[in-house]
Amino acid sequence: MLLREIAHARAGDKGDVSNIALIAYNPADYALLARLVTAQRVKQHFAGIVTGAVLRYELPALGALNFVLHGALGGGVTRSLALDAHGKSLGSALLAMALEDPR
């Protein structure tokens, strides 16, 4: 199962930091997201792209996880030569993560 089957994402940026909100479509799937989508797993998923720490914040009342990816944007919008210097595509890339289907 791909992450996009149970969640959607929104991404933002500030300097060289990307912020990805991962939101369960169904609140009942939040526990599954919290168990399977760890900061370490996100860091591994973005190996070669994210050079700094990945922090995870839990928002159970919203059925969401928020990931802060440091060193994710090649120095930031004004310094990066990346095609997506804002990191908007990182949200979509996260949704391509394969998850073990517990059903």
UniProtKB/TrEMBL annotation:
It comes from the Bacteria. Residues 1-99 form the AtuA-like ferredoxin-fold domain. This is AtuA-like ferredoxin-fold domain-containing protein.
